[in-house]
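lol ok so funny story. i was supposed to be doing the assay writeup but got distracted and ended up predicting the structure for this chain instead. priorities right. anyway since i did it might as well share w the group, maybe its usefull for someone
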Amino acid sequence: MANLIIDIGNTALKASWADGITLGKTFRYQGERMLDFILSLTRKNRPQTMVLSSVRTFSQQSIERLSQECDRLITVDSQMLSKYGLPESMTSDRAASIIATRFLFKGRGCTIFDFGTTLSIDFLDEKGGYAGGMISPGCRTRFKALNRYSRNLPLMDAPEDIKEKCVSISDSISSGVVTGIIFEIGGYICRYPDNVTVFTGGDANYFAKRMKNSIFAVCNLVLMGLALIALEN
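and the output, tada:
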């Protein structure tokens, strides 16, 4: 019997069946009927353990309904974060990324970049201790902010080809946002050159292939961390 791992972020729900830390097929859902979607996954297969990480608030009624669908339900909360030596105010998805990185790169200092609605940067020392982190707007959040808070700037997206010197407004926005993030990333990497650099999140591969540094891109790092939580608790 496999475990069901669920991560609900700002934009979408991601879920996967897990056998130990080995992830199976990953499911993605964007919509408001998240409870119904989870129940559709458990309809044919009852998970032994279900792990729920969510930046959204689930009602107690929904939690009780999910607990009926598995032998054991684990919700990643502040008490669990404290157990892992992480700040209680940290979001559960960031915590899961850190837990997975400790496992994958044991004995190494790490810098973790999570590319989503926000760009979060977290640091681990050689012993796996949490050394703090930063949060700034994510790539698409920056594009939306330029469009929303200016009078005449169009809504753009990340370009396939980044131009060094731009003439048009559209190229200036597209290349400017992405180049700014690359410089931001490079600054942190240069500050901690001995750290292993880990990219995760929806835009991880997009930025990894544009960096000159050695990068480990692990797109399902959060789900891996949640799978470890299922095993360890």
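The domain at 96-224 is CATH 3.30.420.40 (Nucleotidyltransferase; domain 5). The beta strands are 3-8, 13-19, 22-29, 49-54, 72-75, 110-115, 118-124, 130-137, 196-201, 216-217.
back to the writeup now i swear
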